[in-house]
Each structure stands twice: as structure tokens, then as C-alpha cells.
């Protein structure tokens, strides 16, 4: 577009070139059609201005059959019209001042850029050349010199104009172009601005997003340099800090309903609650309107300075946070806005007609016929009261309207315009008051205010430093930019349902990094019922006890929380990995700490332990009481050999009591004691039973001394004792911590030391038991009074049953119950033997003492089998038989 005009202009240049000889070869290709304000008559210097008074150019009808004309503009913008008035107001003010440019009247040329690059370029060329049939590189006529251009609205407009102005070293002071791309002195050597660079704003928004812990945000950017650069800077900064972008939409300049629908759909479907928008109000308003129509109100918007206080936004986005440039009140400005005569120029007429939705034709007629009647109230005088609809007189009262144009509560960009005009004025002032001989140019030269070059003014502009009237803010350009200071604005509904812009903090880009942002949390009203800031995260934090699991193909902020496995923990939020607990530790239920494993052993104090102690003590007591009972009834005891009984009873006491050693926390000594005591106790017990059969004949018949009787028992015991001794010395049993059997417990148990030894030792006991059983089995047929043989056989059967059933029970239990099973087996087998062998005898001794006589023994025996054999005799016979069997077995071997 620019290029087209440029070329057209080049040709026009030929046409108007004074020295052009071949006039016939050039012809005018286009005439720009611009609207605006102009007052250059009798002025010393002219300041340019460019404002996007209209929102767009009228769409071309695409007709290529006729001469294309410069497009018209449409969509009157009251807000930017106010900016224009601010420039006029400032020039007026400066012209009235005595201290600033006292002898120099400023003129102005202001063009409407229509928010469009092509119009901005048209305006720039027209301004530079002074003609709407632009001849580039030449300015014809002898009007006052041009100072600087104040403008041109949005960033992409300024970029376009700055490129052209840069060619002529013509200074430009922008009041609302914030794009960071404009900071390049290489590309835009003459560009200055009175509004902060967006770099600060992107940083500030990023800081705010991080401040509230939002890690999941959507972004919407206008399809221009302002939006693209702003969002790019913002994204770079937050992504570095681990924030993820939920969606990134671009608002088209000319938005079709389909585009808007698509973006609305994205916003509705996205889970991000925070949406950062880098866009002008004009571009954004169709989207906001559509979102509100669809009742999408539960998002929090982060606004940039371009739309944060714009009335174009329907005031329903309560809770919006935004950054706004400095605000000021300009005394006299409101009066100036209200004291407006609609008939001065076409733009003001259009303003009036748009404002009141009427046409001024009637009023113009009245005015020309000098019948205009306007009273102080602004009401119409009697003769025009019956005015038809759609017509107005120009006497309407503007003060009664709540139009954004008259709203001077949020003078931010307006104030920026005001500062820009003052900056140019101060630069001109300095230029004018250059002391001859002390000037900066060409070795102490000064420039002449009536005829200076733009680059000379540029020098003064760059170095200008002044205090803005009424506010005392000091302005100077640091590399073309001003200080990055923003107020943080929160949109809040006031009691009457209107939106109010409440300042909740500020951001000072020049302060130390930690002091830059200052937010008063309590004063923010959020777009939700709760008082807390909304949470905008893709996935909620992973609690301790879980770890982050990435989701394939999704941003890092979206993850699943995977519980730690047993034995693993995570003790921080958002842990990436679970930590394995140490050997002695295990994870707690929540998996957020390692806790020592439970130490398990069968304690004395617990019910099971107490029960077992009671049972074994009871067993031992019963056994001891049997000893006393046996003492009483001599005949029967004699008949059954007291020594045999007593040694058997003694060994049973040992086995009963040794079970106690299995209880309690295993210690090395208790491991040894329990196993050895058990082995020896059983060896003693079984060898006693067996000895009863092998040795008894000798006792009865030859009354061999005691030691002879015990010789065999002791020989068995010796063997076992020596084996145990070797075991204890070589590979003694010891207590161990078993950490592998169960995850959550450490089992304290006895390690046998050597499996081979313990097998040998208990195999020996088993061998004795088998022998005892065999002997008893053989002897069971021999008759005696108390069926001694049968009792022992039965006792041994019980013994075997107990120990055989012990094996599967033992193998199928774990931990302390293994010990309990072991003790039960010991107790059960001991009780079995005790009961089977001694219960019948005790029965006779206690219940039927009359049978306990020598006589009763014999006749009883006689009646039973007819032969006069006593118990002893029968035992002896049995023993002989057993001996024979043993010898034959030995021979067989
Ligand atoms: C210029 O624009 C105005 C309205 O903005 C229109 O009335 C006029 O015809 C246009 N002139 C040309 C030459 O296009
Ligand atoms: C403000 O809120 C943020 C996040 O909620 C918190 O980190 C900060 O401490 C709060 N500051 C004050 C002054 O309450
Ligand atoms: C917004 O509200 C709608 C229903 O009112 C709900 O379905 C949706 O999830 C909400 N969105 C967010 C981001 O909270
Ligand atoms: C929005 O809400 C209003 C009232 O709550 C309702 O009448 C309207 O149908 C809703 N519009 C949509 C698009 O859901
Ligand atoms: C408004 O006009 C009426 C009639 O002309 C007049 O009496 C009244 O004082 C005026 N009001 C103001 C505020 O000037
Ligand atoms: C302007 O007035 C016309 C007729 O007088 C009417 O049809 C139209 O709706 C009005 N527009 C607005 C925005 O009030
Ligand atoms: C303008 O605003 C004031 C208060 O803000 C209100 O009282 C008045 O009714 C409004 N007028 C119009 C025409 O909306
Ligand atoms: C911003 O911070 C700088 C450095 O601390 C300070 O000089 C300046 O006055 C601050 N600006 C405002 C508006 O407070
Ligand atoms: C988390 O556990 C590790 C290892 O157990 C420990 O070093 C660290 O101090 C723990 N951190 C917290 C916050 O408890």
C-alpha cells in the first residue's frame, strides 16, 4: 500500500517539479483524501499530529472497473477523538504561555490515520510535502517549518510512519506506540515516545503471572506488531519460569464472525482461567462482545495498557487486572471538551452527529440564518423545540451524556499525548533560545526557529528534560523511551453496578528487581465468589506421596500424579521421582515419609506370649505335681520303676520350661539356650523312654546300681550334648534381623547357624523317638497292669502326630507365629507324653487307691492273662524281645 502511494508520489513529483521540463510525461496518479485539523495561518512553527479517529477504512467494493480512490473512514472513536482534542488543548495552552515559546505561535496539522497503515502513510507523506498530491523529498511553498510528528496511534502505524520519517530524519514523538520493536535506533532513528516500552509491560505481566502462581495461561494477541511482540516477550519470560501456554490465539485485524467463533470456542474449551491479551481495544471488542453473549464470564483477563481503561470493553469482565500508564488530571481540559462548537470543521460535525445520532443540517441552516438560539442550559429555545427526529441544532447539551469522550477520570493516553506535545514545545523552546556562539551544531552554531532542519530539532528533542505542567512529572528520553512505570488496575463493580478502575498496585521497571512489583492483595476483587486469586493450573500440584507422571504430547505443566510404590516415598510437592526407603525403613501409609519398620518378635508381654508362658508353667507344675503323686503310691510306682518315671518327668519339666526361652526378643544366648535345651530335653525324654525297655530287666532282676541304669540314658545324652557343643562352638545359633521376609516388618528371629547341624541334632531326636516308638510298639502286647506299653505307644503316636503336623504349620506361618507354632508343638508333645504315660497311673493313685497294692497288681494281672507274671516280669520279657529285635536289626545291617 505504502509503496503504491510512494510510486504515485514519485510521479506526482515529476509533475510538480519546478525544473521539470517534460511536464507532458508526468501525470497525477492519485489524490489522498485525508480528514483532520489544520491551523497553519500566521504560525511560526507547525507540529504534526496523527490520531486513529476512525476505527477502520470503509471496505473497498473490489470494483476494478473505475479509478480507485482513497478509501473513506468509518467507525467514529470517541476515545481517540479525545486524544486529538488533548493535542489541540496542549497547543492552545502553550500558545497562551509566556514562559514557553513566548514569541512563537504553534500551528498544527493533524490527520486521521483511521487505524490503518495505508492512511497513516498517506498522512505522513501529505504532512511532509504539504500536499495531498504528495511529491516525496520536496516540500513546496513557503509555509512555516514543520517541527515533529506527534503520533501515530498504534504500534504498527508508528512503525510505518517512522520508516518514512526516518528517511528525512524527521522526529516523531509517539504517545501510544509501545511495541518493543520500535526501540531499535538502527531502524527507527528518529522515533521517541512518551509511553513506556512494552518490554517493561511484558516483564510486568510475566511477573504478575508468577506472583499468583498461575502456570496455565492462554494468550490472545492482535495481528499486529503490538500484539505479536508483546506476547512473544511475555511468553519467553514465563516459559523460562515453567509456565505453560494453554492456547495462543491471534485476533485478525478484520475479523469475520467465523474467526471470532473459532477463538471463542478455543477460550471456552481451554481450561486456563487466566487469559493475557495484547491487543488494542478496537481489535478486541468484537471478541469480548461475543464472549459475553455466550456467557463466558468465568475467566480472569490480564489487560495491557491499550485496553485496560477503554470504554469499548463492555463493563462485564469484573476482576480483570491490567497495567495502565500514568494517569494525570489536566486542569481545564474537561471545560475545553465541553465547550465545543460543532460547526468548526467536518470532524467535529461528525463527532456531534455520531454523539447525538442526528444530522446537523438543520442547525447549520439556523446558524447561517442567525436564528440560532442557545441558552446557558443548553436547551433549545422555543422556536426549535419541536425539532423532528434525527435532526439537531448543535445546541444539545453534551454534559448530560455519559460518553467516554467526556470521561476525564482516566486520562492516561490523553496525558501521554499532552506530554508528547509539551516535549516538542520544550525542544523548540530550547532551539529558539540557543545562545549564539554556544550552539551545538557545526561548531557552536544555533538553529533558526523560523527555518530549521528536522535533524536539528531531533537533537533538542533527544536531550529535552522538563517538568510536565500540573503534575510535576519529569520527562526525558532515555534512548528514546521513558520510565517503565505502570499502575496495576483492577476492574471492580461498584454498588450501582458500574465498573470502576481501582488501582491495586504499581510496577516500576527502573527499580531494583525485587521492588519492581507492588501488589496490594487485599484490594483485589477477583472474578469469583471466593476472595482468593483464581487458580490456573493444568494439573493440580502432586502431593507428597505421589510423583509427576508426564503425559505424552502435552505441555510439562500437564501431568498425572502417580502414587509412590510401597517402600518408596516423596516428601515434597511435585516430586519428579519417588525415593526408595532404606533397608530398615518402610514408607508410611501416605508414602510421604520413611518410617522404621515394625520390629516383630513374640514378646513376653503380649497375650499370646503370656498364654504360652502360662501353659508351659502349668505343664511344668503338673509334671512336678505328678512327681509328688508318684511318691505316694509306692507299689505301683515300684512296679513301674520310679527312676524311669522320675527321669521322664524331669525331662518333661525341661521341655516345658525350655519353651519359655523361645519367647522374648531373640538374643544370641536365648537362641542357643532354647535350641540346645529343646534338643537335650527331648533327647533325655526319649532316651528315658527307650532306656525303660532296654535296661529295665537288669534293674528288676539284678538290682543294678543307679548309675548303671542311667548309663544308657547318659550315653544318648552325651552324644546329643557333644553334638550340641560342637554346634555351639562352630556355628552357633544367633539372633538376626530378617528384613526380606516381610516388607513392612523386621522380624527378629534366631538363625540356626548351620542347617546341617540342626538337622543332625533333631534327626537324632527323631531317631530316638522312632526307636522309642518301635520298642513301645513291640512291648504293647505284653500284659501288665496298666498297659504301660500301650500308653507309651499311644504317647509316642501323639508325639509324632504333633511334630508331623508341626511341619506344614511351621512352614505356612511367618514371623512371630513361627515361634508360637514351635512352642505349641513343644507344649503339645510334652502334654501328650505326660498325659498318655502318667494319666492312667495318677488315676489309679488318686481315684482308686485301693488298687494300689502288691496284691492288686498280681491278681489283676492273673485275671487278665492267666499267667502269674508281674509288671516287671512282663516288662523284662518285653525288653528281652526288644533287645533281640535290636540285635537282629543290628545283624541285618
Ligand atoms: C474524500 O472523503 C470524503 C468523506 O470522507 C468524501 O465526501 C469525498 O468525496 C472524498 N474525496 C475524494 C476525492 O475521494
Ligand atoms: C499476596 O498473594 C501472594 C500469592 O497469593 C502471596 O504470595 C503474597 O505473600 C501475598 N502478599 C501479601 C502482602 O499478602
Ligand atoms: C466456566 O463456567 C462453566 C459453567 O459455568 C464451566 O463449565 C467451566 O468449566 C468454567 N471454566 C473455568 C475455566 O472455570
Ligand atoms: C446467557 O445467560 C442468559 C441469562 O442468564 C440467558 O438468557 C442466555 O440464554 C445465556 N446465553 C447463552 C449463549 O448461554
Ligand atoms: C435554564 O433556563 C431557564 C430559562 O431560560 C432559566 O430560568 C434557568 O435559570 C436556566 N438554568 C441555569 C442553570 O442557567
Ligand atoms: C439513530 O437514529 C435512527 C433514526 O433516527 C435510529 O433508527 C437508530 O437506531 C439510531 N441509532 C442509535 C445508535 O441510536
Ligand atoms: C450518567 O452517569 C450518572 C452517574 O454516573 C448517572 O446518574 C446518569 O443517569 C447517567 N446518564 C446517562 C444519560 O446515562
Ligand atoms: C521508580 O524507581 C526509580 C528507581 O528506584 C525511582 O527513581 C523512580 O522515582 C520510581 N518511579 C516512580 C514513579 O516511583
Ligand atoms: C525428604 O527426604 C529426604 C530423604 O529422606 C531428606 O533428605 C529431606 O530432608 C526430606 N525433605 C523434607 C522437606 O522433609
From TrEMBL:
Residues 1-22 form the signal peptide. It is a multi-pass membrane protein. InterPro entries: ANF_lig-bd_rcpt, GPCR_3, GPCR_3_9-Cys_dom, GPCR_3_9-Cys_sf, GPCR_3_C, GPCR_3_Ca_sens_rcpt-rel, Peripla_BP_I. Keywords: Cell membrane, G-protein coupled receptor, Glycoprotein, Membrane, Receptor, Signal, Transducer, Transmembrane, Transmembrane helix. GO terms for molecular function: G protein-coupled receptor activity; olfactory receptor activity. The keyword Transmembrane applies. It is found in: Cell membrane. CDD domains: PBP1_CaSR. Gene3D superfamilies: 3.40.50.2300, GPCR, family 3, nine cysteines domain. Belongs to the G-protein coupled receptor 3 family. It comes from the Eukaryota. The chain crosses the membrane at residues 608-630, 642-664, 676-696, 708-730, 755-779, 791-811, 817-839. Its main location: membrane. PANTHER family: CALCIUM-SENSING RECEPTOR-RELATED, VOMERONASAL 2, RECEPTOR 2-RELATED. GO terms for cellular component: plasma membrane. This is G-protein coupled receptors family 3 profile domain-containing protein. Residues 606-861 form the G-protein coupled receptors family 3 profile domain.
Amino acid at each position: 500500500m505504502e509503496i503504491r502511494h510512494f510510486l504515485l508520489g514519485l510521479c506526482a513529483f515529476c509533475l510538480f517539479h519546478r525544473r521539470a521540463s517534460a511536464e507532458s510525461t508526468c501525470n497525477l496518479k492519485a489524490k489522498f483524501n485525508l480528514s483532520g485539523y489544520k491551523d497553519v495561518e500566521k504560525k511560526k512553527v507547525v507540529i504534526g499530529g496523527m490520531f486513529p479517529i476512525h476505527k477502520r477504512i470503509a471496505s473497498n467494493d473490489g470494483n476494478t472497473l473505475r479509478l480507485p480512490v482513497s478509501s473513506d473512514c468509518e467507525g467514529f472513536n470517541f476515545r481517540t477523538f479525545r486524544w486529538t482534542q488533548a493535542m489541540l488543548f496542549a497547543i492552545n495552552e502553550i500558545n497562551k504561555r509566556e514562559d514557553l515559546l513566548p514569541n512563537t505561535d504553534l500551528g498544527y496539522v493533524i490527520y486521521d490515520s483511521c487505524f490503518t497503515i495505508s492512511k497513516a502513510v498517506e498522512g505522513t507523506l501529505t504532512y511532509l510535502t504539504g500536499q495531498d498530491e504528495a511529491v516525496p523529498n520536496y516540500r513546496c511553498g513557503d509555509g512555516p517549518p514543520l517541527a515533529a510528528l506527534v503520533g501515530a496511534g498504534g504500534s504498527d502505524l508508528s512503525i510505518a510512519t517512522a520508516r518514512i520519517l526516518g528517511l528525512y530524519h524527521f522526529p516523531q514523538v509517539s504517545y501510544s506506540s509501545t511495541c518493543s520493536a520500535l526501540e531499535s535506533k538502527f531502524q527507527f532513528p528518529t522515533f521517541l515516545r512518551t509511553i513506556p516500552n512494552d518490554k517493561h509491560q511484558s516483564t510486568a505481566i510475566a511477573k504478575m503471572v508468577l506472583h499468583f502462581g498461575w502456570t496455565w495461561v492462554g494468550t490472545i494477541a492482535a495481528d499486529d506488531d503490538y500484539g505479536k511482540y508483546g506476547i512473544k516477550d511475555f511468553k519467553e519470560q514465563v516459559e523460562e519460569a515453567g509456565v505453560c501456554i494453554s492456547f495462543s490465539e491471534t485476533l485478525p485485524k478484520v475479523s469475520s464472525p467465523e474467526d471470532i467463533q473459532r477463538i471463542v470456542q478455543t477460550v471456552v474449551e481451554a481450561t486456563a482461567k487466566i487469559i493475557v491479551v495484547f491487543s488494542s481495544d478496537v481489535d478486541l471488542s468484537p471478541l469480548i462482545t461475543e464472549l459475553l453473549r455466550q456467557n463466558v464470564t468465568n475467566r480472569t483477563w490480564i489487560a495491557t495498557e491499550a485496553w485496560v481503561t477503554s470504554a469499548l470493553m463492555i463493563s462485564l469482565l469484573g476482576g480483570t487486572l491490567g497495567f495502565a500508564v500514568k494517569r494525570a488530571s489536566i486542569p481545564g481540559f474537561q471545560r475545553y471538551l465541553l465547550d465545543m462548537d460543532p460547526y468548526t470543521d467536518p470532524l467535529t460535525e461528525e463527532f456531534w452527529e455520531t454523539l447525538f445520532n442526528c444530522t446537523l443540517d438543520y442547525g447549520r441552516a439556523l446558524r447561517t440564518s442567525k436564528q440560532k438560539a442557545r441558552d446557558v442550559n443548553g436547551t433549545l429555545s422555543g422556536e426549535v423545540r419541536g425539532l423532528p427526529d434525527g435532526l439537531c441544532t448543535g445546541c444539545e447539551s453534551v454534559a448530560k451524556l455519559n460518553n467516554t469522550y467526556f470521561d476525564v477520570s482516566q486520562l492516561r493516553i490523553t496525558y501521554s499525548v499532552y506530554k508528547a506535545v509539551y516535549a516538542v514545545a520544550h525542544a523548540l523552546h530550547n532551539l529558539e533560545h540557543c545562545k549564539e556562539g554556544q550552539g551545538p551544531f557545526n561548531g557552536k552554531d544555533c538553529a533558526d526557529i523560523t527555518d530549521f532542519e528536522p535533524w536539528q530539532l531531533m537533537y533538542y528533542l533527544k536531550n529535552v528534560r522538563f517538568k510536565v505542567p500540573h503534575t510535576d512529572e519529569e520527562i526525558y528520553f532515555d534512548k528514546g523511551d521513558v520510565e517503565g512505570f505502570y499502575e496495576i488496575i483492577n476492574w471492580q463493580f461498584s454498588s450501582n453496578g458500574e465498573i470502576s478502575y481501582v488501582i491495586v498496585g504499581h510496577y516500576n521497571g527502573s527499580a531494583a528487581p525485587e521492588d519492581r512489583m507492588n501488589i496490594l492483595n487485599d484490594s483485589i476483587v477477583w472474578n469469583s465468589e471466593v476472595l482468593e486469586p483464581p487458580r490456573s493450573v493444568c494439573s493440580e500440584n502432586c502431593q507428597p506421596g505421589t510423583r509427576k507422571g508426564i503425559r505424552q504430547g502435552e505441555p510439562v505443566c500437564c501431568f498425572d500424579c502417580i502414587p509412590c510404590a510401597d517402600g518408596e516415598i516423596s516428601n515434597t510437592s511435585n516430586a519428579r521421582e519417588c525415593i526408595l526407603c532404606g533397608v530398615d525403613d518402610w514408607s508410611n501409609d501416605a508414602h510421604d515419609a520413611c518410617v522404621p519398620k515394625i520390629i516383630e518378635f513374640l514378646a513376653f508381654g503380649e497375650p499370646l506370649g503370656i498364654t504360652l508362658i502360662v501353659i508351659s508353667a502349668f505343664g511344668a507344675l503338673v509334671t512336678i505335681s505328678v512327681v509328688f503323686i508318684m511318691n505316694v503310691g509306692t507299689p505301683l510306682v515300684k512296679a513301674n520303676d520310679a527312676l524311669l518315671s522320675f527321669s521322664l518327668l524331669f525331662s518333661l519339666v525341661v521341655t516345658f520350661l525350655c519353651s519359655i526361652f523361645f519367647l522374648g526378643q531373640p538374643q544370641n544366648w536365648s537362641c542357643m539356650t532354647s535350641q540346645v535345651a529343646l534338643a537335650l530335653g527331648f533327647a533325655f525324654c526319649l532316651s528315658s523312654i527307650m532306656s525303660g525297655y532296654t535296661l529295665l530287666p537288669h534293674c528288676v532282676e539284678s538290682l543294678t546300681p543307679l548309675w548303671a541304669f542311667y548309663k544308657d540314658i547318659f550315653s544318648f545324652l552325651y552324644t546329643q550334648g557333644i553334638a550340641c557343643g560342637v554346634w555351639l562352638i562352630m556355628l552357633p545359633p544367633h539372633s538376626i534381623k530378617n528384613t526380606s521376609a516381610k516388607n513392612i516388618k523386621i522380624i527378629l528371629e534366631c538363625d540356626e547357624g548351620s542347617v546341617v547341624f540342626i538337622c543332625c541334632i533333631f534327626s537324632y531326636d527323631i531317631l530316638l523317638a522312632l526307636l522309642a516308638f518301635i520298642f513301645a510298639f513291640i512291648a504293647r502286647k505284653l500284659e501288665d497292669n496298666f498297659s504301660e506299653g500301650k500308653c507309651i505307644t499311644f504317647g509316642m503316636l501323639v508325639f509324632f502326630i504333633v511334630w508331623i503336623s508341626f511341619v506344614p504349620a511351621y512352614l505356612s506361618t511367618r514371623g512371630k507365629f513361627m515361634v508360637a507354632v514351635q512352642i505349641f508343638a513343644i507344649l503339645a508333645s510334652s502334654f501328650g507324653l505326660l498325659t498318655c504315660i502318667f494319666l492312667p497311673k495318677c488315676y489309679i493313685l488318686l481315684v482308686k487307691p485301693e488298687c494300689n497294692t502288691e496284691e492288686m497288681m498280681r491278681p489283676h494281672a492273673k485275671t487278665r492273662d492267666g499267667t502269674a507274671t508281674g509288671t516287671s516280669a512282663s516288662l523284662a520279657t518285653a525288653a528281652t524281645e526288644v533287645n533281640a529285635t535290636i540285635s537282629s536289626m543290628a545283624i541285618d545291617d
